[in-house]
Design brief:
heterodimer; A: 61 residues; mainly beta; 1 helix; elongated; B: mainly beta
């Protein structure tokens, strides 16, 4: 695959981003390779019902 | 690859936390990884050895890096070798995020988030179906 890019001039007046978090990135410039990986887990068993497991919580792992 | 120069007149930034980067200038490679374990408990009582990252294999599992399926030939021509931005306003940058003014070759960003809700009610009784 041949991918050709011809960049004209780019003039931006203002960029405003409230906050960046969890490996987000604001890039002003060129990049050759971008790899984005994300792993999001909140399955049903993430909901725990019941008391705090004090026994295991206090003994060092 | 011929790189453009970035011109930023004004950059506003209030807080960049310990694991975040504000890079002004070119770089070769940027690697950012953040592991987030968010626990919401009915009563905010937390003990020392609870919720360790090592307890969850999701934070250890290797991730398959997506790659191009066929060779790609990229030709880039810059008619104008400048990028002009008058004003950049980034008040907060947290959890290994990157504010980068300049060019780079490789950018790898990885995020792993696990949410846990803990309600302190007693376990639901399993009704026996007869």
């Amino acid at each position: 695959m041949i991918y050709q890019v011809i960049n004209g001039d780019i003039c931006v007046r203002s960029v405003s981003i409230e906050d960046l978090s969890a490996s987000a990135s604001l890039f002003i410039g060129d990049t050759k390779t971008v790899t984005l990986l994300s792993f999001y887990e909140t399955p049903p068993e993430s909901l725990i019902l019941g008391a705090i497991p004090v026994a295991t919580a206090l003994t060092p792992g | 690859m011929q790189r453009r120069t970035s011109h930023v007149k004004k950059l506003n930034s209030l807080s960049i936390d310990a694991s975040s980067v504000l890079q002004i200038g070119d770089s070769q490679e940027v690697n950012a990884q953040s592991n987030i374990l968010a626990v919401q408990r009915e009563k905010a009582i937390f003990y020392q050895h609870e919720f360790e990252f090592a307890d969850y294999d999701m934070f250890m599992a290797p991730l398959a890096v997506p790659g191009p399926t066929e060779p790609i030939c990229v030709d880039t021509f810059h008619d104008c070798p400048h990028i002009h931005v008058k004003k950049v306003n980034v008040p907060f940058a947290a959890a290994s995020s990157v504010v980068h003014i300049g060019s780079t070759d490789r950018l790898t960003l990885e995020t792993r988030v696990k949410n846990i809700r803990h309600l302190l009610r007693d376990e639901p009784k399993r009704e026996r179906r007869n």
